[in-house]
Design brief:
By secondary structure, the protein is α/β, with parallel strands linked by helices. The chain has a single domain, classed as Ribonuclease Z/Hydroxyacylglutathione hydrolase-like (Metallo-beta-lactamase, Chain A, 4-Layer Sandwich). The chain contains 3 helices and 11 strands; from the N terminus they run E-E-E-E-H-E-H-H-E-E-E-E-E-E.
Length: about 180
């Protein structure tokens, strides 16, 4: 399994990770940095991507995702509230941006047509990759992604909260052994 950080390292914004195995390429988050002129993560050709997982709706984790739907529809997986919030946030981002964005409403709509809501704890597989979403406690619908492939287990925490609040439960802890954690 190979992991490539396409953005979001040492900065807030542009969170984007590519996970590649012998058979599959998955994207974990694909966000924008919105400090002034929007900036995007390193581009990866949509034809090489098998599916996308979005951990939560904030634009720094989801705002660049419609780029994958300009030329090829691919499955997108997220918790149901994340998909609902993305519809609001990305639509507003397109409408309110005073700068050129490399995608349009049509691409956004195609993305939502190919979105599938997952429940926390629901394991799903595409080719040789398995994913499970775990509660992250950050915002409504936020998730950590447990990735299993090639006899390795990796947890991508994304943004997390470990304290119960009036509105949200704290993150779910992964109790089984892990080979790596991406924070």
């Amino acid at each position: 399994m190979k992991i490539a950080f396409l953005g979001g390292t040492r900065a807030i914004g542009k969170s984007a990770i590519a996970i590649k195995t012998e058979e599959t390429t998955a994207i974990l988050d694909y966000g924008v940095a919105v400090n002034g002129v929007p900036s995007f993560p390193i581009h990866i050709p949509p034809k090489t991507v098998d599916f996308v997982v979005i951990t939560h709706a904030h634009l720094d984790h989801s705002g660049a995702t419609p780029l994958f739907y300009v030329s090829k529809p691919i499955p997108l997986y997220a918790a149901a509230p994340t998909i609902d919030l993305m519809k609001i946030l990305i639509k507003d981002f397109i409408r309110l941006s005073g700068y050129y964005l490399p995608y349009e409403y049509l691409d956004m709509n195609t993305m939502f047509e190919y979105s599938r809501a997952l429940k926390y704890g629901e394991r799903f597989s595409i080719k040789d990759l398995q994913f499970t979403l775990l509660n992250a406690g950050h915002i409504l619908g936020s998730a950590q992604a447990l990735i299993e492939a090639e006899d390795k287990r990796i947890l991508y925490t994304s943004d997390i909260n470990d304290v119960d609040t009036c509105l949200l439960e704290r993150l779910s802890k992964c109790r089984d052994p892990l080979d790596a954690i991406i924070v």
